[in-house]
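#lab-general

N.A. 3:47 PM
ok so I finally got the sequence cleaned up, no stray characters, all 160 residues accounted for. can someone with queue access submit it? mine expired

B.Y. 3:52 PM
send it over

N.A. 3:53 PM
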Amino acid sequence: MAVGVTVAVPCAAEARESRAAVSCVGTNTVGFSPGLGLQARRTRISGTGAYTCTSADPGFASATSVISGGGVNGCFASEATTVEKITWRNGEKSVVLYPMGTVEQVAGQAVVLVIGKVVSGAFRGRTVASPGAQLTLDVPSCASDRGVREITGPSALTIF
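B.Y. 4:20 PM
back already:
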């Protein structure tokens, strides 16, 4: 007869699911090609983000991100699908898909509230809210052929 101690070790999936919510603030810079104009048109989106986060796990105390996507965008409204690839302080990654959503814009000043889902990596399956206000200092470009090529400003990232 053998006598011993059994220790339950959670698997990686259980550890991911038990992670507490993470709340981050930072900035995003988003570029448009072609630039945002008075008339909405099909554009590609690319950008970056940098965040400082509140988390029970110090590995999630900060993050950087790369943003990509596309849709129909203009200086007064945007409808786009974007992907944000987040790299956390501890080296883990999360990929967030923000499905087609509408971003209210007034002359290139974007007021953003997008809701997405973590589709892979840390926090997989969790919901993400990302509100922010990205601004352009080049409002007259809305009326030019070149358009507004870049907006930047404060953003937030909450994973719950």
